[in-house]
Design goal:
The chain has helices spanning about 1-10, 30-45, 60-70, 90-100; strands at about 15-20, 50, 80, 105-109. By secondary structure, the protein is of the alpha/beta class. β3, α4 (about 90-100) and β4 form a beta-alpha-beta unit. It is globular, with a radius of gyration of 13 Å.
Length: about 110
């Protein structure tokens, strides 16, 4: 995560798609990871696809990610949060808030 976060923060133009999906036997992302990524999403104007599926992100983490996306409305097109921990109505509210203002986001899983 550290290397990818640094590249995203610097606006690495080659990093348009990021797959941080959890895989068996590997380190899984948590809300702490989302708290690192949220502010980066706010300022990154290169990333178009972000896959965070199969991790341990909860409503709190999704809310932080969405806070960043509310302020950056033009680049991210696809966000995959499927198979994370206990995502529910609160997650849906956070994502709906993003969808109301985001100009590019066309797919959320």
């Amino acid at each position: 995560l550290r290397t990818t976060a640094t590249r995203l923060h610097r606006g690495d133009e080659t990093l348009t798609e990021v797959d941080l999906s959890g895989k068996a036997g590997e380190f899984l992302l948590t809300d702490s990871s989302a708290f690192v990524l949220g502010p980066i999403l706010r300022d990154n104007y290169v990333l178009t696809d972000l896959n965070l599926s199969n991790n341990e992100i909860t409503n709190r983490g999704v809310a932080e990610l969405c806070e960043g996306l509310i302020h950056n409305r033009y680049t991210l097109k696809r966000l995959n949060l499927s198979n994370n921990n206990d995502l529910d109505y609160e997650t849906a509210k956070s994502i709906c808030a993003v969808m109301r203002v985001h100009k590019a986001l066309v797919s959320v899983n």
